[in-house]
Amino acid sequence: MTPIFFLLFAAVAVFSALMVVLQRNPVASALYLVLSFCSLAGLYVLLHAPFLAAVQVIVYAGAIMVLFLFVIMLLNLRKDVEAGVHRTARQLFGWLLGLVLAAQLYLLLRAPWGLGPQGQEPAEAVQAVGNTQAIGLRLYTDYLLPFEVTSIVLLVAIVGAVVLSLRQGKHEGIEEAP
Amino acid sequence: MQIPGLSPDLNWFVWAVIKVVALMTAVLLPVPFVVWAERKVAGHIQFRPGPNRVGPFGLIQPFADVVKLLFKEETLPEKADRVVYFLAPMLALIPAITVMSVVPVGPSFYATDVNVGLLVFLAMSSLGVYAVTLAGWSGNNKYGLIGGLRASAQMISYELSMGLSVIGVVLLAGSLSLVTIVEAQSGTLFGFLPRWYVFYQPVGFAAFVLTMLAETNRVPFDLPEADSELVAGYHVEYSSMKFAAFFMGEYMNMLAISAVCTTLFLGGWHGPWLPPAWGGPLWFFTKVAVLMVCFLWVRWTFPRLRYDQLMNLGWKVLLPLTLANAMVTALGVALREGWFR
């Protein structure tokens, strides 16, 4: 059963990722991104990582993309409205980015394919403790410093957002939310 | 259980289909009766008899309503985004069914025991907002759009508090699996009080019930619908069975979220006197029914919150309160386990 589901989720993930870029309508793009995240969560489940799968859906599909959609709808971007803005600069940047990605893909495909070296915790050990517990133990012991640094970065972002909204409010008067 | 004469894969598949059908029935079947209960409770709160013409006590009324909705004209706004317009009502029905698949109704009576069951519930409740937001946007109607925007802002604000309010339960039970959480609530406190987490986590329970109302867009948090100002908010452009999908989705969400609340705080299928084999599901559904009546009671008692009141309650009251609750519980669990010795 697993290979069938893998192919299904992988195909949906790749297809929806392509559609994110190819769609002209920003709302459709955002929805395809949600679909892509959900099929990625399905792949995590197949890898015996249900915790990651659930967090993937909660954080990316449930929180971040809802905010994305909120902003897109609030600005009410329509198809092709932005097509003419900074056209040359955007095309140049696009070619540059495409070149870098192509180079990366070349290097990746040149390397021999196969399983990498086994990590410190093989699947059986993780199954024995439980997926959530294994991640928690690693996160709060070996990776405590990166974890705390990340939280400080997020705190700075929150403070920054509050300061920005307060400054805007002082000059222009706070707008009524919808 | 192995059905004789089937390969293990096929056996698994047959059982999966049986479970799915049973689950769909269990979620869909109560909906007409909940709708009837809503109208009956509303009637009696306002000194009216409520529906009383179709069938005994008006019990057949919801079925008559379904027939009426089936025969109504399907409308499609001219400038609607067609795909999203058709997608939104379908999305409204999915989260509730998925949530019920991880809720244990009785001892060894559940569809699946995922070891992150609680996270599945949180994920589905966060996906539930898409139906409302997309419905509001796709109809290309200003009232619909405002309803959709309100829904997404409201969901983001209350989801955090909902997630934090259940952390206390997770800490006490030591598991994210809903089956394990229910099993951890067996036994009694001081010999007479059932060991339900509502007695350990009164603040968490109160916060969860409030966010529960907000997540299902029920009064006093029904700003996305707000009939008096937005006509019908996000589903203003929907008619016939597509409207019915939203209508059903709301009641299915109420049922699913009440089931989760029962599981987390009210001891799930645990109850005195009756043998757990058939008394378990009976207790479970009794508790869910009590919570549902509270939902209806609140609707016909409280006025709608203003938008700024809603945001203040979410961010300035519920969030710090649930955060403090989680920290105090963590301290208590650490003391109980003797981590400071």
Spell out the blueprint of helices and strands:
The complex is a heterodimer of chains A (178) and B (341).
Chain A: H1 2-22, H2 26-46, H3 50-75, H4 87-110, H5 123-129, H6 131-140, H7 144-172
Chain B: H1 8-28, H2 30-45, H3 61-70, H4 82-100, H5 117-138, H6 142-165, H7 167-173, H8 178-183, E1 188-189, E2 193-194, H9 197-200, H10 202-215, H11 227-230, H12 240-265, H13 276-299, H14 307-337
Antiparallel strand pairs in B: 1-2
Helix pairs in contact in B: 2-12, 2-13, 3-12, 4-5, 4-12, 5-6, 6-10, 6-14, 7-14, 10-12, 12-13
Explain what you see.
The complex is a heterodimer of chains A (178) and B (341). With 178 residues, chain A is mainly α. In chain A, 78% of the residues lie in helices and 0% in strands. Chain A has a domain at 1-78: NADH-ubiquinone/plastoquinone oxidoreductase chain 6, subunit NuoJ (Four Helix Bundle (Hemerythrin (Met), subunit A), Up-down Bundle), CATH 1.20.120.1200. Chain A is built from 7 helices and no strands. In chain A, helix 1 (2-22) runs antiparallel to helix 2 (26-46), helix 2 packs antiparallel against helix 3 (50-75) and helix 5 (123-129) crosses helix 6 (131-140). The termini of chain A are far apart. The radius of gyration of chain B is 21 Å and the shape is globular. In chain B, 67% of the residues lie in helices and 1% in strands. In chain B, strand 1 (188-189) and strand 2 form a beta hairpin. The mean pLDDT of chain B is 84. Chain B has 2 domains: 30-60; 72-337, no CATH class. Classes of the chains: A mainly alpha (178), B mainly alpha (341).
Summarize this, please?
The complex is a heterodimer of chains A (178) and B (341). Chain A contains seven helices and no strands.
Q: Can you list the strand order of the major beta sheet of chain B?
A: 1-2
Q: Please give the share of residues in helix of chain A.
A: over 70%
Structural class of chain A: mainly alpha
Contiguous low-pLDDT stretches of chain B (5 residues minimum) are none
Poorly predicted sequence stretches spanning 5 or more consecutive residues of chain A: none
Question: Count the strands of chain B?
Answer: 2
Which architecture of the domain at 1-78 in chain A per CATH? Up-down Bundle
How many structural domains in the coordinates of chain B? 2
Strand content of chain B: under 5%
Strand content of chain A: under 5%
Please give the radius of gyration of chain A in angstroms.
21 Å
The major beta sheet of chain A can be summarized as:
none
The global form of chain B is globular
Number of strands of chain A: 0
Shape of chain A: globular
Mean pLDDT of chain B: 84
Q: Helical element count of chain B? A: 14
Task: Identify the biggest protein-protein contact and residues per side.
Answer: A-B, 28 and 33 residues
User: Which radius of gyration of chain B do the C-alpha atoms yield?
Assistant: 21 Å
